[in-house]
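Known limitations

Structure tokens in this collection are predictions and should be treated as such. Users comparing against experimental data should check residue numbering before alignment. To illustrate the layout, the record for Ubiquitin carboxyl-terminal hydrolase is reproduced below. The input appears on top and the generated tokens appear beneath it.
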Amino acid sequence: LKNLELDYRCDDFVVNDTKLGLVQKVREHLQNLENSAFTADRHRKRKLLENSSLNSKLLKVNGSTTAICATGLRNLGNTCFMNAILQSLSNIEQFCCYFKELPAVELRNGKTAGRRTYHTRSQGDNNVSLVEEFRKTLCALWQGSQTAFSPESLFYVVWKIMPNFRGYQQQDAHEFMRYLLDHLHLELQDGFNGVSHSAILQENSTLSASNKCCINGASTVVTAIFGGILQNEVNCLICGTESRKFDPFLDLSLDIPSQFRSKRSKNQENGPVCSLRDCLRSFTDLEELDETELYMCHKCKKKQKSTKKFWIQKLPKVLCLHLKRFHWTAYLRNKVDTYVEFPLRGLDMKCYLLEPENSGPENCLYDLAAVVVHHGSGVGSGHYTAYATHEGRWFHFNDSTVTLTDEETVVKAKAYILFYVERQAKAGSDKL
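Generated tokens:
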């Protein structure tokens, strides 16, 4: 019985069942027991939350008492990487509102409409919807009815469709974000209730066809908001042949320039502080490819030395910037703990555009919406938290704990992922 329980716990499958199927019967019994225990525990926790005082969500702001409507996310076992990303995405208003306004699965042409079917070795076919569980989680985060929400249903779906994130070990928040956005995009492409998501997007004037960037097929809200286009320009240094390629992106991964990697804090006086502009310039500057990256020149008909340069051909509505803090050495993946200065508002991206003259001044300005921070020394350890702004106030999200903070604290953070939202109306003239 103990071995069978371990089999269920680790999601492995025992093939040496008896002719009467006793192993399967025990497995089903264990699953029923766990489901019963889980349901009872959930009811108990809900009752405790309902009876808890609202004083835990009250803060003094400018001398008066105000309620925090933000909700934390419980850590299910090293799931801070997921919590930080979910809290950040929940504060990207246009993206979050789209999902919150979707009808529940049960209201879409039958109980299984909009769900994708996945197979697991020990539990057979299961109808799960990442979009649906993501929608439920976003709806729970800003209701203000509870101090913390447990995202176990969403995490269950993540385990089913993203095998890389099974288990309870620490994971890379950026890698999780990319998997999450990619799978949301794929599921949304399937459409539901007989209506494609392209048609649904067209109903929203702020997500018009001109703002879409298709990645792996038809556009969805994911590509409409996070999608941009890069131009990759390669020049052969022997014959001068130029090759251009356009690549869609959902985020940009930026190196921290090597000359800044020994500077760990903003207050150190040994040299200039690394800024986000330095990282963006390093990403877009002309670069000569080394011997391991020789370019296959079609005119020379062999691999040649070449230069490479990136231009941004189209900026997204939400610019996600990932600072590459983790690097492999011979045996370990080390962290670059350098402080990188970043603006809260007025990030000007015009100088990185391929055709800046075709963009208005406001279309190139971005204001910060959220920051994911990694605390600790390695990607497989440490802890993730997030800062995000909501209705003009900054919050710090540390799993189930949500605290009000200020801009001075946010700008001191050692950012790992930055979410910038395109400025829609004229505001302050602060620029990077």
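For this record: The longest helix spans residues 22-51. The chain has a mean pLDDT of 78. Please report discrepancies through the issue tracker.
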